[in-house]
Design goal:
There is one protein chain. This protein is an alpha+beta fold. It contains 4 helices and 10 strands, in the order E-E-E-H-E-E-E-E-H-E-E-H-E-H. Strands 4-5-6-9-8 form a 5-stranded mixed beta barrel. Strands 1-3-2 form a 3-stranded mixed β-sheet, with no helix packed on it. The chain is globular, with a radius of gyration of 16 Å.
Length: about 190
């Protein structure tokens, strides 16, 4: 019997999609829906590296602490999102969402290739896209979709054009539906 998983990467309402098939670590077939209106994530992913880490602490709605394989702690800022501070509306909800989803979980950090622990052992902070290993969920994107954070521009080439495009779409969708942070006056 073939196990089939469905993974949706950055799929926005009304976007063109294509399908790709692959197998996950357990050999289950995975179908991935891709928002083709934003480009080709497979091609762009060649410029970024995935790093497997464990979340040890959630510091805020857009910062977590992780432990690298060598035991070194690193503070990770979720790239391209800005969650409200705890004393503002939805600040506590943003942090609680990350606690529920990521605390003590194995995750993949998507970082630019030049930032890898071997090449920069003294780095204590990094900006990254955070994917849960279980379910492949992009937490940055999910927080934008739910209105738990707003999109902010990143440094040039800090993330793929595909991710940037889908994040902007997710933020616009949440804003148009007055979700979360978009439901309160600025």
């Amino acid at each position: 019997m073939t196990k089939l998983s469905l993974v949706i990467f950055s799929l926005s309402v009304g976007c063109c999609t294509s399908f790709a098939q692959n197998k996950d670590a357990q050999g289950a077939h995975v179908v991935v829906l891709i928002d083709t209106s934003c480009g080709n994530p497979i091609l762009e992913s060649q410029f970024f590296q995935r790093l497997q880490v464990t979340v040890t602490k959630v510091l805020s709605g857009n910062e977590i602490e992780v432990t690298l394989r060598d035991g070194q702690p690193v503070i990770v800022r979720l790239q391209a999102i800005e969650a409200p501070p705890p004393d503002k509306p939805f600040g506590s909800e943003s942090k609680q969402y990350l606690i529920k989803k990521a605390l003590h979980q194995e995750i993949d950090l998507t970082v630019r290739q030049h930032w890898m622990p071997d090449s920069m052992p003294s780095v204590s902070h990094v900006s990254a896209i955070v994917h849960l290993r279980k379910g492949f969920e992009d937490l940055n994107y999910s927080m934008l979709c739910l209105g738990l954070a707003k999109y902010i521009d990143t440094e040039p080439y800090g993330m793929s054009s595909y991710d940037q495009c889908t994040y902007i779409k997710a933020s616009k969708m949440a804003r148009s539906q007055a979700l979360g942070v978009w439901s309160v006056a600025p």
